[in-house]
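Minutes, project check-in
Item: structure for the 284-residue chain
Input as provided by the requester:
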Amino acid sequence: MANQSKKNYLASGLAVLAITALAVTLLASTGAAQNSGSTNSGLTGNTPGFIKKAADLGSADPNTVIAVTVWLNLHNEAQLDRLVGQQYQKGSPNFHKWITQDSFNATFSPTAQEVKSVQNLLTAHGLSVVAVAENNFYVMVQGSIGDIEKAFHVSIHNYNWKGQTYRSNTGDPNINDSSGAHVAAISGMDDLGFAPNNVAPTDGDGNAIAPRPLPANATSNGFFFESQCFRAPETDTFKTATGVTPRTRRPIPATASVRTSAIRRSGISRPAATSRASCTPPTT
């Protein structure tokens, strides 16, 4: 009986040990899965809607070089939303109290460390950094479609939409790295353009005015909106065409003005007089 009790006790102990080991294994597996999930960031809503109605033409050329922009998450977005609302709410202590670019960057912009983390991820996949926003809003990179597909775990296809061929990612991108937590969206994987509703400015003859790029040394002067966004007044000089004789506008005699005023005061209805004088363009 003593030996049997020892055997039962030993069996019970081994069973407890086995259950404990199994529990530890399950916990370790769960923890690993959670850690894996924490470094696996999916960007929802990052697939263009037009592909649902377009004809899929198959994979895009993986050797084609394109540029994409990786947008970073802002900090304290709820606070920013409240501030913007208060700036436009009459009676608020912050009504029309605009903040400087430096103040915005310190409170709401991504940090330099976050930008560096995203840059390291992108360059590790063979992408070249083209530009980084002054306020750390985005990192623009360039690379082949094949490398971009690998970096963001997507497939990029060509589509026929309304008689035109466009490229687009077939699904939402996914970043399998801790730096993915800093990424809000990725643009540029598709090349579907949007027609703006604005009208390009033209000169006096109806010719389009070429846009003027900002100078390389342009600065924001410390304000949120750059002063260079507003052009200085432009002066256009008009010349009299060859063979056209300028005509001089003749002023209406004072007596005519007095007579017209008297007629109006009397209430008499009379057709308005017209002047035959014409405007004269300035000559140079």
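Outcome recorded: The helical segments are 2-38, 77-87, 101-108, 112-124, 145-152, 254-266.
No further action items on this chain.
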